[in-house]
Amino acid sequence: MEELIEAFSIDRIGKSGARFDWDKAQWFNQQYIKESSGTDLAKAVMKFAPDNYKDVDTDFLAAACDLMKERMTFLTDIWGKGYFFFESPKEYDRKVVRTKWKPERVPLFHQLKDQLAALDEFSTSNIEATVKAFMAEHGLGFGDVFQVFRVMLAGTKSGPPIFERQHCWAKLK
């Protein structure tokens, strides 16, 4: 409020009629969310938590908010766009499954899952090194693994960076 008062000037008031710009309002809201800490966002989003998410651990929620804040426009987006942090995906992106999923690679993905589950330290750098080494060993490219990996974890090909999800996805272990 103090910043607004300080920045206000009667000389800067436009003479034409004011018009509310919904897109600009959303952009401002998104900027505010991006600049907020995961902890602050976790406190704020809990006010809008659906009943089945009322008992989410606050540290876990703060980590999820940190990862999702680049993709959030409203505080409630964590529960909709980021629901996969709190429960298994409800559905899977059929287009990615149709174009990227190869049945003959099922044993490879089970092997990768086992390697990730066996990590002593489930950290960003360990996850990344394990996945990249696995890809090199089996002659797989990023497109062969990353989109399938995203869909397995989140049901969609979009979302936060894969390797930075360790705090929220340690439940895979």
UniProtKB/TrEMBL annotation:
Query: Which Gene Ontology cellular component terms are annotated?
Result: cytosol
- Domain of life, per the record? Eukaryota
Protein biosynthesis among the record's keywords?
yes
- Keywords on this record? Aminoacyl-tRNA synthetase, ATP-binding, Ligase, Nucleotide-binding, Protein biosynthesis
Instruction: Say if the entry is tagged with keyword Protein biosynthesis.
Output: yes
Q: Name one GO biological process term.
A: glutamyl-tRNA aminoacylation
GO molecular function per UniProt? ATP binding; glutamate-tRNA ligase activity; tRNA binding
* Aminoacyl-tRNA synthetase class I anticodon-binding domain location: 41-164
Family indicated by similarity:
Belongs to the class-I aminoacyl-tRNA synthetase family. Glutamate--tRNA ligase type 1 subfamily.
PANTHER family noted in UniProt: GLUTAMATE--TRNA LIGASE (PTHR43311), GLUTAMATE--TRNA LIGASE, MITOCHONDRIAL-RELATED (PTHR43311:SF2)
Name of the protein: Aminoacyl-tRNA synthetase class I anticodon-binding domain-containing protein
